[in-house]
């Protein structure tokens, strides 16, 4: 939806849609997703199995209360939460291409130099 190299993929889905882990790995962190001081769900950071320098970051969801940091996740099996309704709270570029609010999950992948760099990915 932007010019240049994309940094985030938006996966469109209706609010309340169940969301599952997109990779095999483990949960690194679950942190609040805040915009202008208001919490708009959570951010989940996942680390792929066998790759300590890559982090998959997912935002725009309400995390499943059973999901915990350190937990193993299985691609397409582990429920990580539901799509949050952000209508009227944040601009959804996807909305201009859909017949609804453009709700969905934002997903991006980040590479880190060391494990200590992981704390800067929270949002």
Describe this entry's structure for a reader.
The chain is mainly β and 123 residues long. The chain is built from no helices and eight strands. A hairpin with a 2-residue loop joins strand 3 and strand 4. It starts with 8 loop residues before the first strand and ends in a 12-residue tail after the last strand.
**Major beta sheet summary:** 8 strands, antiparallel
Radius of gyration: 14 Å
Name the structural class: mainly beta
Helix content: under 10%
Low-confidence stretches: 116-120
Order of helices and strands, N to C?
EEEEEEEE
Q: Please tally the helical runs, counting DSSP H or I stretches of 4 or more residues.
A: 0
Shape: globular
Distance between the termini: 20 Å
Query: What's the mean pLDDT score?
Result: 79
Strand content: 35-45%
Got a strand count? 8
Which helices and strands, and how do they pair?
Elements: E1 9-12, E2 18-20, E3 25-35, E4 38-48, E5 54-63, E6 72-73, E7 79-83, E8 104-111
Antiparallel strand pairs: 1-8, 2-7, 3-4, 3-6, 4-5, 5-7, 5-8
């Amino acid at each position: 939806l932007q010019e240049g190299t994309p940094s985030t993929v938006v996966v469109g889905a209706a609010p309340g849609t169940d969301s599952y882990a997109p990779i095999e790995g483990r949960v690194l962190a679950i942190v609040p997703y805040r915009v202008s001081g208001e919490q708009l769900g959570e951010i989940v950071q996942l680390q792929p199995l066998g790759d300590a320098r890559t982090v998959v970051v997912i935002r725009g969801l309400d995390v499943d209360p059973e999901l915990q940091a350190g937990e193993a996740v299985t691609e397409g099996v582990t429920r990580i939460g539901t799509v949050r309704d952000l209508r009227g709270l944040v601009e959804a570029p996807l909305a201009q291409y859909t017949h609804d609010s453009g709700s969905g999950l934002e997903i991006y992948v980040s590479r880190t130099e060391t494990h200590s760099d992981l704390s800067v990915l929270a949002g």
